[in-house]
Amino acid sequence: EKRDQRYPRNVVNNQKYNFFTFLPGVLFNQFKYFFNLYFLFLACSQFVPEMRLGALYTYWVPLGFVLTVTIIREAVEEIRCYMRDKEVNSQIYSKLTARGQEIGSSFLSNQRVPADMIFLRTSEKNGSCFLRTDQLDGETDWKLRLPVSCTQRLPTASDLLQIRSYVYAEEPNIDIHNFVGTFTREDSDPPVNESLSIENTLWASTVIASGTVVGVVLYTGQELRSVMNTSNPRSKVKEIISSFINYLFIKQIDMATLFAYR
């Protein structure tokens, strides 16, 4: 089935906030944890004379210091993300075009692959290339990739513009180790159908380790394998502290209730 909907924009954006959501977002992410909310409640309770246990600054200065350090840290990280994203999004790649219609992109050795692609052709004499995938899966060994055989046999890369072909592929998913699809060339007699596997793919965030390759874009933007595999790691330290504060809060309620009825 041919894909009718438009591809998402192929823009890398690792920032968590924008100019308007930065401060509200940082504060929300801090106070969504119970232990921060607990200390905010204690600090606010000191405005009530009957509940005051000491000077206001003994509650608000430590809380304000923690929030200030957090905001500065998040701002520095956001600026770093912005600079990294700008560098990646500004990379220039050569394209094979015909009448303004984009067909594919060619990459030189040591260039980052900008989108999930099907490998069509390589300049290597052995008809294959290697990828560095450490930024995608953390593995340091190079991965062998093979081009579609019927496009690799074409005399030159520009001949790709003369053929009429389609790629039938699975829906975007998070599996970076498997792929199922079919490459169909309709202008040959008879039509050529080649099965595609993980060996015919060039995933985004990998790096071409040898030769020059030509590929056709398959997935972009939020549909990239690398993007779909991105998740926010859970902090075990925060979970332990939150559990301890929950226990402390319950104990304080128990003690307050006990002494209230004595």
Automatic annotation (TrEMBL):
<dbReference type="GO" id="GO:0140326">
    <property type="term" value="F:ATPase-coupled intramembrane lipid transporter activity"/>
</dbReference>
<dbReference type="GO" id="GO:0006890">
    <property type="term" value="P:retrograde vesicle-mediated transport, Golgi to endoplasmic reticulum"/>
</dbReference>
<dbReference type="GO" id="GO:0005886">
    <property type="term" value="C:plasma membrane"/>
</dbReference>
<dbReference type="GO" id="GO:0005768">
    <property type="term" value="C:endosome"/>
</dbReference>
<feature type="transmembrane region" description="Helical">
    <location>
        <begin position="55"/>
        <end position="76"/>
    </location>
</feature>
<dbReference type="GO" id="GO:0005802">
    <property type="term" value="C:trans-Golgi network"/>
</dbReference>
<feature type="domain" description="P-type ATPase N-terminal">
    <location>
        <begin position="3"/>
        <end position="60"/>
    </location>
</feature>
<dbReference type="InterPro" id="IPR008250">
    <property type="entry name" value="ATPase_P-typ_transduc_dom_A_sf"/>
</dbReference>
<keyword id="KW-0812">Transmembrane</keyword>
<feature type="transmembrane region" description="Helical">
    <location>
        <begin position="20"/>
        <end position="43"/>
    </location>
</feature>
<protein>
    <recommendedName>
        <fullName>P-type ATPase N-terminal domain-containing protein</fullName>
    </recommendedName>
</protein>
<dbReference type="GO" id="GO:0045332">
    <property type="term" value="P:phospholipid translocation"/>
</dbReference>
<keyword id="KW-1133">Transmembrane helix</keyword>
<dbReference type="Pfam" id="PF16209">
    <property type="entry name" value="PhoLip_ATPase_N"/>
</dbReference>
<dbReference type="InterPro" id="IPR023298">
    <property type="entry name" value="ATPase_P-typ_TM_dom_sf"/>
</dbReference>
<keyword id="KW-0472">Membrane</keyword>
<dbReference type="GO" id="GO:0006897">
    <property type="term" value="P:endocytosis"/>
</dbReference>
<dbReference type="InterPro" id="IPR032631">
    <property type="entry name" value="P-type_ATPase_N"/>
</dbReference>
